[in-house]
Amino acid sequence: MTIMATKVFENLDSSAVFRIKVEDSSVFVTFNGNIDKEYQYTTESVENFTKSVENSIKDPESSIGRYINAQIRSESLKLVDNTNK
Fold first, then answer.
1. pLDDT at residue number 84
2. Burial (0-12, 13-18, 19+ Cβ within 10 Å), 77
């Protein structure tokens, strides 16, 4: 497994998503509803997820909020329970 450099997507043209940060094997999503709370997710392939986010951001017909939501619903992004930290 290769360790990927941290990649941050900010200043998104999205009413739902404030920031997406991809780090090692985790994806951190901050929603506009509460920019002080970051949600941590795991995904099978961080590289594929990152490419998909980049493509979604470049595509004017695409919605990054809808994409993230679909990934969560399909369980491609799995929420990490950090309540015990």
1. 54
2. buried
